[in-house]
Amino acid sequence: MKFVHIAAISIWCAGLVCLPGLYVQRVNAEKDALHRLQALVRFIYVGLMSPSAFAAIASGTALIFMRQTFQPWFGYKLLFVGILATLHILTGLVIIRLFNEGQVYPVWRFIAVTVFTLLVVCAVLFLVLAKPELPDFLSKDLFRPGGLGQLIPFPRS
Questions:
Q1: Helix, strand, or coil here: 122?
Q2: pLDDT > 80? residue 49
Q3: What angle do CA 113, 137, 117 make, to 5 degrees?
């Protein structure tokens, strides 16, 4: 299960990092090259990245229950995986608009998105490999029966 998870995360993150480099090529593409570029970008997103993202999240969820990882670092890791999922959605929105007439992907955006994605991927790797001692912002009382009711008072009838 861990092998599936690591392989899926690798493919997913590789796609998130490489697609902005393909977007930049849209500016120089002529009609036939533009159609090939669009087909390649959509194949990477729909055929490789999206199934890998699903497999990564599904296998990661299974690993949570198999390994019973309930440490503060793991919560931070899930935060960064959520950022990766958000980047995945935003990537899909870029693909939808990018190949319309007159659209381009600026080089500054390519650099910014690629650097940000690499930082998020490195943060996930650091948290998983180092398993640092991090502060736990959740109260221990939250996990006992009725703990959520004390944190958020619900009206009782």
A1: helix
A2: yes
A3: 10
Closest CA to 60 of 16, 132, 17, 12: 12
**Annotated domain spans of the chain:** 2-151
Short-list 52, 47, 50, 20, CA closest to 117: 20
| 81-124 tens-digit pLDDT | 999 999 999 999 999 999 888 888 999 999 999 999 999 999 99
Taking each helix axis from N to C terminus, what angle separates 2-24 and 50-67, rounded to the nearest 10 degrees?
150
CB 44 within 8 A of CB 18: yes
Please provide the average confidence, as pLDDT, over all residues in the chain.
88
**Nearest one of 31, 20, 17 to 98, comparing CA atoms:** 20
Q: 151 near 139, Cβ under 8 Å?
A: yes
- Report how far residue 138's alpha carbon sits from residue 2's, in angstroms, rounded to the nearest whole number: 27
Whether the full predicted model's pTM is greater than 0.90, yes or no, is no
Alpha helix segments (H runs only) across 106-145: 107-130
Q: Three-state SS for 41?
A: helix
Tokens of 124: 């996930």
Closest CA to 49 of 78, 90, 101: 90
